Fold this protein.
Amino acid sequence: MCTGTCSRCIAVTLYPLALISIICNIVLFFPGGDMKYVKDGHITEEVKYMGGLIGGGVMVLLPALYIHLTGKQGCCGNRCGMFLSIAFAAVGVAGALYSLSVAVLGLKNGPLCKVLLIWTTPFKDSDLNYLTEDKWWGKCTEPKNIVQFNAGLFGTLLACSCLQLVLCAIQMINGLFGCLCGTCSRKTVI
């Protein structure tokens, strides 16, 4: 496969991953689809870091656009364009790492929820493995099903950021080959 085609394939794959990351982060602000928790400030701390919106979203979407253009013929489809795609892919790696870190923290610390009458993060700094033992989920009385909500969305962010990380790293290698060897545009020999 030529480096230009590889760039286009990577970019097309990064678009939906960035969109999923952005959507997951936005949805995390509204547990149970209710705005009252965000108004009252009862949102899990890791949601406010906006790993999916900034890291897995914008910091991956912008490089994906450039990488896509790099794969096309014309002004950007040359050795210099492939060299710049390495830098853009590095930005994507940084964004994916940020999203990955926030998602891991969100899963490790667990959700902010009401336990009896107090808003707390009951699973933070505890030895309980709340993700695999659903008997502990009942500790959170409000918002309803917040453990499943947070685990599902942070898990999706984790998976997306892992894929983004791998794809951007592949593009860095692809960009290096494209810079050294050219973008393998088809030339006819007469």
The helical segments are 3-28, 36-40, 45-48, 51-70, 79-109, 146-181.
